[in-house]
Amino acid sequence: MLGTLKAIVKINENLTYNLLNTHIMDKNTICVHSGTFIDSEMKGRTTPIYPSTSYAYLDMEHKRYPRYFNIPNQGAVVKKVAQLEGAETGVLFGSGMAAISTAMLSQVKQGDHVILQKELYGGTIAFVQSELPRCGVEYTFTEGMEVADFEAAIRPNTRLIHIETPSNPLLTLVDIEAIAQLAKDHGITTMIDNTFASPINQQPHRLGIDIVVHSATKYLGGHSDICAGIALCSEQKAEAIHLSAKNFGGSINAQSASLLERSLKTLNLRVQQQNHNAQYLAEALEAHEMIQHVYYPGLASHPQHELAKKQMQGFGGMLTFELAQGIDNQAYQEALKLVAPSMSLGGVESTVCSPALTSHAAIDEATRQAMGISHQMLRFSVGIEDAPDLLADLNQAFQMVVMAHA
Ligand code: PLP
User: Does the beta carbon of 46 sit less than 6 angstroms from any atom of ligand 1?
Assistant: First the structure.
C-alpha cells in the first residue's frame, strides 16, 4: 500500500510513465492520477482550485500569474494531457483557436511560408487567411491529402506544416508518420489538430509531430460546458509558445481549468464508449436504405481503413452520413428526439449538424461541392448513450419524414 502511494506521488510529480520503475501506466490511470495533486493543507483527494491573480514574488522561483500560463490548475491539466500524448509539456489556453493561433504564430516570422492541409476546420482556415498575410507570412493549402501533395508545396522558406486528421467533416486521413518524416527531412516544424481523434485514439507526437493542438472544448472537456484549448510539445517548443502566449494573452482561469481537469478523469471511459457507439451506428447506417454514404474510418469500406488501423487505436466518435436524395435534411433533424441538432461536438450527448449550414457555411456552394460537402450530409458527434437507443431514434426520424411525404 505504501509502495502504491509513493508511486502515485511519483507519477503526479515527475510525469513519468514508470510506476515503481517496473510498470507502464495505461490510459485510465493516467486520466485519473497524472497531474492531479492532493491538497497538502486539508489532505483532500482532488487538486484545490487556486483562483488567485496575485502571487507573492519575493524569493519565489516562479512569478505566477494566470496570463503567464503557470498557475497550479493550468499545470495539472497540462501534465495529464501531455502524458496522454507522450509529450514533455504544453500550454493550456482559453479556447482551441487561442491554442492554434498562438502555437502557429510562435513558430513563424515575416517572410516564412506555412503549408496547410486542404481539408481543415473552418476557423483555422479563417485565421490563416486573415491573419498570416498581416504578419507577412505566406501560406499554401495543399491540392490533395497525400504526402506528395505536401511535398509539392514545400518552398525554401517553408517553416511549418499544419495537418488535421481525421478531417472535418469528411473524416479523410493524412499519414501522420509520413508527413512528420517529410518535414524532418526538410527541417520543417509540424503541427496537428488532434481534436477529432482525442489523445485516446491517436498520439501524433509519438509518431514524430512536433506540436499537437486540441480544442479542449470538445472531447477533453466532453460535457459541452467548457471552452479551452491546449498545445502539447517538447520543453523547447513550449518555450517559444509560452513567449507568444504571454503576449497574445489567451489564458484560462483556474475555475475552468479545474473543471477541465475533472472531466479528463473520465476521458478514456467516455471515448471508448463513443468509439463503440460510432462503430455500431456506422455499420447500421451503411446498410440503411435511406442513407447514400457513410464516412467513418472504422468501416472496412473507408478508403483509408488500413491507414486508420495503423495510426489510430480507436476510430473515434465522429461519423458523417449522407441522407438519400428526396429526404428533407432539416425535417429529418427536427424529427430526432434523442439526438440533438446542435453545433460543436465531443460531448457526452449525441448531436448532429449540417456542415453546409454550420462549419462550412461561409464557403461558396461550388467550392463546397468540389470539397464533397453536400446538402444531404449530416455530421454526427456520437455520445455515450446506449447505441441501440441512438439507432432507434435515427430510425424513427426516418419513418417520420417518410410518413410526412406519403
Ligand atoms: N479544431 C477543431 C477540429 C474544431 O472542431 C474546433 C471548433 O469547432 C476548433 C479547433 C476550435 O476550437 P474552439 O472553438 O475551442 O476555439
Answer: no
